[in-house]
Every structure is written in C-alpha cells, then in structure tokens.
Write a structure and sequence with these properties.
The complex is a heterodimer of chains A (268) and B (187).
Chain A lengths: L3 H19 L2 H12 L3 H21 L2 H39 L9 E9 L7 E4 L12 E3 L4 E8 L4 E5 L7 E5 L5 E5 L10 E8 L9 E4 L11 E11 L4 E8 L8 E5 L2
Antiparallel strand pairs in A: 1-2, 1-12, 2-5, 3-4, 3-12, 4-5, 6-7, 6-9, 7-8, 8-11, 9-10, 10-11
Chain B lengths: L2 H20 L2 H6 L6 H11 L2 H18 L8 H14 L8 H25 L8 H32 L25
Classes of the chains: A alpha+beta (268), B mainly alpha (187).
Chain lengths: 268, 187
C-alpha cells in the first residue's frame, strides 16, 4: 500500500508529535520562542508598512489641518500638565496621611506602551501578541491594561514579543472587588463570555452583599499578579446562588477587547 | 509534486498562520477567525505523496501552535490524520472538479477544529468553548471550503509554470489505423 519512505514519514510524524506533546511546559515555551523567530520578519515588515502608511497619511494631510491638530494637542497638553500637578499634590497628601496612619505606602505604577501586533490564530483562546519582550524588561504575569481598564496579564515572553492572555480566558482569573462596598470576588469566564468578549462573570461574592447593576468593579490586589485598584468593568446583572449563600454578577468590561491597538504593561 | 512546489506550499503555510494572527478584519467583523491550513492540506493530500503530507502537518502544526496558546504539537496530529485520510481516498475524489474541491475543503475544515479541541481536552487544557463556537466552526468550515479551490488553482498553475512537463512516450497503441492518411499512386 505505502512505499518505504512513506512508512518512515508516518512513523517520524507520529513520533515527533508524541515527543513534542510529552515535553515539559518550560521546554515547550522555549521551543515556541525559538520557532517564533520565523515570524520576526513578518511582524517587522508589517510594522514598517504601517509606519510608511502613517508617513504617507501625514504627507497628504493639509498643513492647515495639521496646524489645528497641533494647537489642539498643545492645549490638551497644558490641561493634562495642570491635572498632573493637582494629582501630585493629592498623592503627596495621600502619602502623608498614610504614613500618619501607619499604612503601607502605595507604589506608583510604572508603565510601558506596547503595540498589539496580532491575536491567537485559533478561536478558542483569548490571547493577543504585543511588541515588547524580555529586551524591554517584560516578564511573565505582568498586568496589561488600556486607558479604560484591565485587559489581562503577560502569559509568555519572547525577546521582542510577548503573549497576553485576556480577561475572560480560563487561564486569566482576576481577584476583583466592588468599589462601593469593598467586597471581593473572582473574575472568570461566564456563559456570557462565550457569546462575546466584553462580558465576564464575577463569582464568589458573599450572599448578603448589596451588589447591584451599575456598581464599578476594580482589581482587589488579593493575589500575586494584579495590583489593587485597576478598573475592570461595571456590574450589569446580579443574582443569588446556592440558596442565598453566594452571589454572582455579569460584568461589562471597560476595555474593548475587540479593538485593542495599544496597551500599557505595568512593569512593577 | 516538485521540490519547488513543496517549498512554496510550506511558505504558504507560514503565510497563512501569519495572516490568521496579524489580520483581524474578519474576526472583528463576525467574531470568528478562519483557518486556511486544512484547505492547504486538502490540496497537498490530493496532489502529492505522504512525505509532503507529513512535512506540511509537522511544519504547519508547529507554526500554528507557536503563535497560539495551544500546547506545542497539538495541531500536528489533526492535520496529519486529515492528510492521511485524503491520501487513502484520493482515487475516489474528483480532484479537478471545483465543487468536489469545495466539499473536501468544507469537510477537512470542519473536522480539523473538532479534532484539535478533542486533543486539547485530552491534554487537560481549557479551551473557551460555548454557543459561539458553533458559529465560529461554521465560518471556519465555509472559509476553508472556499479557500480550497483557490489553492488548487494557484498551486496547479505554479506547478505548470515552474516545472517542465514531459510529453507522453510513444507506444504502438497510440497509432490508430482509422486516422492514417492513405496516399494513392499519384502522390
């Protein structure tokens, strides 16, 4: 039926698949990094193409429009500088009060901007690729967010690229709390998550909690990955479970996970 | 299939995986991403031998898993099984008919995600599966079905363009007496 080279091909393929699947997770990650270098050219070329397109767009934009944009940005810059000064005053006051009460001092977030270069090619993982890697100081489990709210955590790091597992993926569970009451729960994928990426479930809330739609949800800081206070989303529906012992809620995420172009990686 | 064509197909596999990762237009529009590797495997299984099928399964599978959160190697076996199955049945498939290519493309694109998900569950992974998966499966099936005839056209043309095709050798049965020119005396 088959010739000798074909039997060899079948055996080699099956053996290779078996070996790869039985490797320890760490070795698999190393191999993935190594194989990932094949795509460096592609991602680099797409970045160059985007830069060229941006240059061309600026070149064809009339000077009048550019001048107006510049004036708007300068005004916005002045306003943000003023807000920053106010925030610095408030932060100093906060630090003084914390030290007076003997509370632990809060560390300011140090962030790096990353560009989203791709998404997982399959449909059953919620993962994005960003253009920062070990070369930029990124390590595994660093939180990732947008200006709107939490996005996920770094799950695997290469030299120039990293994978970020998004909220709603079973591999990204987030300790969260209700801002108004301070009650803690866990964000995980719910039934609604499987319909669309914008909604997740908040589980394990105490049964006597006064959880209601419209409540803001933040990270609780209870866990090794996410610091306290990153906005996550808003409760849109809550229900009681287990004969009143616990509650769970559907939370609409602040960050639009379908339209991620740039994200912030929290470096500390 | 010549070596040049095989190399081109492997490069196409690389490009397919890259496009599925970097191009988000379809996913943003309809919340489902297409998969072109099964369609490519359908072409290779119906046009080349088992060595080429194995090469595409190994290289395509590894490239796909590299950019995915799948465990490395989990996509090799589904691709390979599809290729081997089509190799077994290739004499029963009307390879040159567009509708047959479409149907084969749909079948392989439908079975690939099912086998991959089965593999993931057997490995103890937790893929995100729900009602929307049915919609994504339908999109993958149809996209794979539509891509298959395109791959057949593209690579058949490349094969013609890049390879020297030999004329069939002459044998006695080719000479037909009813087509013979009879010459009379005057000529």
């Amino acid at each position: 039926m088959f010739k000798k080279p074909q039997y060899i091909a079948i055996l080699l393929t099956l053996a290779l698949a078996g070996i790869l699947l039985s490797l320890p997770a760490q070795r698999k990650t190393q191999l993935k990094r190594w194989f990932g270098t094949v795509f460096v050219v592609g991602f680099g070329a797409s970045r160059s193409a985007e830069k060229a397109a941006e240059k061309a767009r600026v070149a064809v934009t009339p000077r009048k429009v550019l001048g107006k944009q510049l004036a708007d940005l300068q005004e916005q810059n002045q306003r943000l500088r003023l807000q920053l000064k106010q925030t610095e005053v408030i932060a100093r006051e906060n630090d003084r009060l914390r030290s007076a009460l003997g509370w632990k001092k809060q560390t300011p977030w140090s962030v790096k901007l990353a560009r989203v270069v791709g998404r997982d090619p399959s449909n059953w993982h919620r993962v994005i690729h960003i253009d920062l890697g070990t070369r930029n100081g990124v390590t595994e489990n660093m939180p990732v967010m947008t200006n709107d709210g939490l996005v996920g955590r770094v799950s695997s790091v290469g030299v120039t690229r990293s994978q970020v597992v998004l909220i709603g993926d079973p591999n990204c569970q987030v300790g969260a709390m209700i801002e108004a009451t301070g009650e803690a729960g866990v964000i995980s994928p719910g039934q609604s998550t499987r319909l669309g990426p914008g909604i997740v479930a908040l589980n394990y809330i105490a049964g006597d909690s006064e959880l209601k739609p419209g409540d803001r949800v933040l990270t609780s800081g209870l866990g090794p990955v996410f610091p306290k206070g990153i906005p996550v989303g808003t409760v849109i529906h809550a229900r009681t479970l287990d004969y009143g012992l616990t509650k769970d809620a559907r939370v609409k995420l602040h960050a639009n996970l379908n339209r991620l172009e740039h994200v912030w990686v929290l470096m500390n | 299939m010549s070596r040049i064509n095989l190399i081109l197909i492997l490069m196409a596999a690389l490009l397919c995986v890259y496009v599925q990762t970097a191009f988000q237009g379809v996913r943003n529009l309809i919340n489902a991403q297409f998969d072109l590797l099964p369609a490519l495997m359908a072409y290779v299984a119906l046009s080349a031998d088992l060595v080429a099928v194995s090469l595409l399964a190994v290289i395509g599978g590894i490239l796909f898993d590299t950019l995915s959160a799948n465990p490395l190697g989990v996509s090799i076996l589904p691709l390979f099984f599809i290729g081997v199955f089509l190799q077994f049945r290739h004499d029963l498939i009307l390879r040159d008919m567009t509708y047959a290519q479409f149907v084969v493309g749909c079948c392989v694109s439908a079975s690939m995600p099912l086998m991959t998900l089965l593999g993931l569950w057997l490995l103890g992974e937790r893929p995100l599966v729900g009602l929307v998966t049915l919609w994504q499966w339908l999109v993958m099936t149809l996209a794979g079905g539509m891509a298959t005839p395109l791959f057949f056209r593209l690579f058949d043309r490349l094969d013609q363009a890049l390879n020297y095709s030999t004329a069939p050798a002459f044998n006695e049965s080719m000479a037909r007496s009813n087509r013979e020119i009879k010459r009379g005396r005057g000529y």
